[in-house]
């Protein structure tokens, strides 16, 4: 099989790991060619006290795409989008999706509608209607967190039943596969991830419980969407197997991150015995 090639349109940060900085290397390790367009170049993620840099607009994106078109380079198996900082840039992405799909009707578009977390938006509010009206109907797979699911739906999601209803509404907009990266709809010490895929008119649903680590991670959502893209490809679109693999590898990464931050030894050899 030819090497899958992803066009990844997300943020770049000088310091740290979010956006393309967190998606590119894992995707490469999993066997993907990754071509990155940096929607913004920022000093660091938006949680810091100071933040500055450049935000690409639709003309910047058009220049890159026009030149690539001229060289016949717009041939991809996957498109992945994440943090976008400008509404005009996001609208332009709709045109890019259509062109890439015209070049490859089998292209899979994985959209992480990165807008915020824990009740706070960290992108301009004007992105929301563009995601709702223009981008969702074009996406094959979406990976919102609980807050982003509520924003897209325009309604609070307070129970698992609410979440399935929200997911059905996204299916109704044309999005065949939905993975909710995390929600706090379960017990106090767990995160719940949900996925649903429309197969022959039926929704095939999977729910996973993740033991909650006592820390806040930035970039975990970006890793989630990149790994989801990779595992959906490797499993032929099996959402159960993909979610298992994504969560398993993410937990390993987050535990190592936490151990490093706490100054604990990163790695130890243990004898496995019953
Ligand atoms: N505190 C945590 N404890 C355990 N796993 C976490 C934690 N935060 C994030 N994760 C893992 O990262 C994934 C994506 O996290 P999420 O918080 O939904 O991303 P974001 O809100 O940044 O989009 C979750 O599915 C989970 O596997
Ligand atoms: C520049 C940038 N990109 C991407 C993200 C998305 O991060 P996450 O994976 O935690 O949703 C953030 C969140 O702070 C960000 O500031």
UniProtKB/TrEMBL annotation:
Residues 81-234 form the Pyridoxamine kinase/Phosphomethylpyrimidine kinase domain. GO terms for biological process: pyridoxal 5'-phosphate salvage. Pathway: Cofactor metabolism; pyridoxal 5'-phosphate salvage; pyridoxal 5'-phosphate from pyridoxal: step 1/1; Cofactor metabolism; pyridoxal 5'-phosphate salvage; pyridoxamine 5'-phosphate from pyridoxamine: step 1/1; Cofactor metabolism; pyridoxal 5'-phosphate salvage; pyridoxine 5'-phosphate from pyridoxine: step 1/1. One of its GO terms (cellular component) is cytosol. InterPro entries: PM/HMP-P_kinase-1, PyrdxlKinase, Ribokinase-like. GO terms for molecular function: ATP binding; pyridoxal kinase activity. It catalyses: pyridoxamine + ATP = pyridoxamine 5'-phosphate + ADP + H(+); pyridoxal + ATP = pyridoxal 5'-phosphate + ADP + H(+); pyridoxine + ATP = pyridoxine 5'-phosphate + ADP + H(+). Keywords: ATP-binding, Kinase, Nucleotide-binding, Transferase. Its EC number is 2.7.1.35. It is an enzyme of class 2 (transferase). Transmembrane segments: none annotated. NCBIfam families: pyridox_kin. Belongs to the pyridoxine kinase family. This is Pyridoxal kinase.
């Amino acid at each position: 099989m030819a090497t899958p090639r992803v066009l990844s349109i997300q943020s770049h940060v000088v310091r740290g790991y979010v956006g393309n900085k967190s998606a590119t290397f894992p995707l490469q390790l999993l066997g993907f060619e990754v071509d990155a367009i940096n929607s913004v170049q920022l000093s660091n993620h938006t949680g810091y006290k100071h933040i500055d840099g450049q935000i690409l607009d639709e003309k910047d994106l058009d220049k890159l795409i026009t030149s690539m078109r001229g060289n016949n380079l717009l041939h991809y198996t996957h498109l992945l989008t994440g943090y976008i900082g400008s509404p005009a840039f996001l609208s332009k992405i709709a045109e890019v999706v259509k062109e890439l799909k015209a070049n490859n009707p089998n292209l899979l578009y994985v959209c992480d509608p990165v807008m915020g977390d824990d009740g706070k938006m960290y992108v301009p509010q004007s992105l929301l209607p563009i995601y709702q009206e223009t981008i969702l109907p074009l996406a094959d797979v979406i990976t919102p967190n609980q807050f982003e699911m509520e924003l897209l739906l325009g309604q609070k999601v307070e129970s698992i039943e609410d979440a399935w209803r929200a997911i059905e509404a996204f299916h109704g907009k044309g999005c065949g596969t939905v993975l909710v990266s995390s929600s706090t709809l379960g017990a106090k010490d767990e995160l719940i991830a949900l996925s649903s895929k429309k197969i022959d008119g039926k929704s095939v649903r999977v729910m996973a419980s993740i033991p909650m680590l006592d820390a806040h991670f930035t970039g975990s959502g970006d890793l989630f969407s990149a790994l989801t893209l990779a595992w959906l490809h490797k499993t032929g679109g099996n959402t159960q197997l993909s979610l298992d693999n994504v969560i398993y590898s993410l937990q390993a990464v987050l535990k190592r991150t936490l151990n490093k931050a706490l100054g604990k030894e990163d790695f130890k050899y243990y004898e496995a015995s019953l």
